[in-house]
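2024-03-11 09:14:02 INFO receiving multi-entity request
2024-03-11 09:14:02 INFO entity count = two
2024-03-11 09:14:03 INFO echoing inputs for audit
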Amino acid sequence: MSADAKLDTGKAAAAPERLIVSPSPHLRSKDTTASIMMWVAIALLPGVAVSFYYFGLEAVRTMVIAVVSCLAFEFVGMKLLGTAGSLKDMSALVTGILLGMNLPPTAPWWMVAAGGLIAMVVAKHLFGGLGSNVFNPALTARVFLLIAWPVQMTTWLKPGTTGLVTAEGLQAVTGATPLAIIKEGGVGALSGTGAIDMLMGNVGGSLGEVSAAALLLGGILLLAKRIITWEIPVFFIGTTALVTGIAWMANPAQYASPLTHVLTGGLMLGAIFMATDMVTSPISFGGRVVFAVGCGLLTGLIRLFGGYPEGVSFAILLMNAATPLIDHLMVPKTFGTPRKAEVAK
Amino acid sequence: MAVRKTFKGGVHPHEYKELACSKGIVDMPPPSRVVVLLRQHLGAPARAVVNVGDRVVEGQVVGEPAGFVSAPVHAPISGEVTAVARHRHPGGFICDAVVIEAKEQIPDGDGVVSEGAPHRLPGATLDYMNASPDELKALIRDAGLVGMGGAAFPTHVKLSPPPAKPVDMLIINGAECEPFLTCDHRVMLEETEKVVHGVKILMRVLGVGSAIIGIEDNKPDAIDVLTRAFAGVDGVTVQACRVKYPQGGEKQLIKALTGREVPPPPGLPLDVGCVVQNVGTAARVAEAVMEGKPFTTRVITLSGTQVANPGNYRVKVGTMLKDVIEFAGGLKSDLSRVIQGGPMMGIAMADLDVPVVKGTSGFVFLEAGNPVDYEAAACVRCGRCVSACALRLQPVEIARKIEAGDLDGAEALHVMECMECGSCSFACPSNRWLVQLFRIAKGKINERRRKA
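2024-03-11 09:21:47 INFO inference complete, emitting structure
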């Protein structure tokens, strides 16, 4: 009974000298972290393309710097801190694209690079690298930049600008985001912008704040490929619509309609691509529902009553912080365990 | 099939059934040498009752049950006992075995070879509806029947529920959810009559009025054939189930078919009034009761890319795997892994010098690079293992506790309820070793409990 299994069958191949042994299961799903990240990157492409279309070379420049700096700082973070991760897992690429999507097209190069540093080194690798970060890296960077350089982070390019813009020429081509217009001047001030403009992306904003339709397209792809599950986008957007809808019904003169809220700002980007970040959202279905409802509630409240016109980033980061608690509290009853009511009987 | 029942969780591996599902069962002629293991069932191993040099006749008992949770083993062929020795089990361990060789019979004084007809169980009856349940159960026990789905639990024990736990439902498992395996599928198609009789006998033994046969709907022909075969039988339903692993897990099948949830271990199907039997076992029950045939023959699947002729073969229990392979036309040259059972829960063998046992559903021969030998990467907390778990456990959290050496924490997260189906490891995009860690932890916790 040796480990060598030789079969003298004459006609057929003998068993190899050594068979590989390994514990079951002997099949693996084809999805890997890298393939999931690749699909997220692909799903972001329509949104990226629309931002390039409306904001021209400025958007291209910002996106390239964001991606390159994230890849570079991922490498630096891993080397410096010896933490988990690999450029091959493509997560830094996704963070890079998401960072670019979260910046205004005219963001100065050094600011974008600083965003890459914050995202990869501070938000990701100081927490332990891939899988260990509490906060979404791209959003952490966005909020850091928003607080550090508020002017540059809220200077918006008018859609339709194609070339690069000099610092001096910037004043002539700026436009505000729809949410900022509403915050400043009420719903009436937005009268020039229709739902179609917002859907297609013909409005001012960050690269990823413009076209709801392109982002939805990516979201459908992610759902179809089962990269994300439906509950976070649906409950996030649904709750935001509900909260802003209540305000709108109470006072339509002051508050924008839920449709406007759903189609503008970072909601689509946040709900489809950022709140669904595997690492920083809960692991169970119930947990994800609670998480998404929390995101929607906070987004609605910040937009309606907060000092900032947009609340998606803050909402997601706050719920990121709550995720360990949600995971801790929302442990499902195991199979066959009676529910509380039955135990009481 | 309007309604396809199922359970929550699970995964959907590629099925690979096409390799063997359309191949009719081929009878392999009895081999000239068999190795009959004495531990082919859960519970106490059988005790050898023959010695080297004894002549045995097909169907004769060569190993006696050593307790209630045990089963006899019978000689699959007539011949001479040439060894009673230790031999490797396809499950990897080594146990006692009786080796029988079909030697040339020495003629007696008149030149007559008197081998004798194969042994049959006394009391076998075609009129089982008028036999007492106890008589039927005795036949099932004496035939050495064990569950053929893989766990090989003695059948008569499952048919003896304690009075405190009334049973009202027989579940027949025809799900066959493991990829590659098709032997149950072929038995349903080709031994339909035996399955029908077996189900009726099992219902009579248990005294239940209803039975449900659960079949994954990737076997529409089997669902069709059995639906027609059971058309005139009161209380029996054939139910299509969604193709999803582990649909054939006892607990998952009961949940899908009846909505009942078996409590966590030590909970048993009996606790929710169910007894589950494999569809192949049902066919063997009919043979035992109606023909008095001991359990010495079964259908196994040979599949995978590295066997020349994937298919379903009716072989004697105790036939050496290499003899089966030879009969099936041999292997291909790129073989790197041989799995006993299906690829999700089966055992990768280091050694092909093993016999077929009662619980062998098949062997899968995989090419080099399948599965790819992945490096485990960092957990990204995607929660796919949580969605995949058919028992609503949280593999990611349990694994974290085990990796931190916190067995108490793992126990608090119910690691002992894990049935080791492997869905979590299958689903993990970081290729982390989840179920493998749980097996280790369960072993350590059991050891700790024994010491306590």
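2024-03-11 09:21:48 INFO post-check: The two ends of chain A are 58 Å apart (CA to CA).
2024-03-11 09:21:48 INFO post-check: Chain A touches chain B through 55 residues (CB under 8 Å).
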